[in-house]
Amino acid sequence: MRRLINTLFVTNPDHYLSLDGDNIVLKHENSIVGRVPSHNVESIVTFGYTGASPSLMGYCAKRNISITFLDQNGRFRARVIGSSQGNVTLRKEQYRVSDDEHRSVKIARNFILGKVYNNRWMLERTTRDHGLRIDLERFKLVSKNLGETLPAIQSCEDLDELRGLEGQAAVMYNSLFNELILQQKDDFYFYGRTRRPPKDNVNAMLSFAYTLLANDVASALETVGLDAYVGFLHRDRPGRVSLALDVMEDLRGVYADRFVLSLINKKVMTKDDFLTKENNAVTMTDDGKRKFIQNWQQKKQEKITHPYLGEKISWGLVPYSQALLLARYLRGDLDAFPPFFWK
Question: NCBIfam families annotated for this entry (predicted)?
Answer without folding.
Answer: cas1, cas1_DVULG
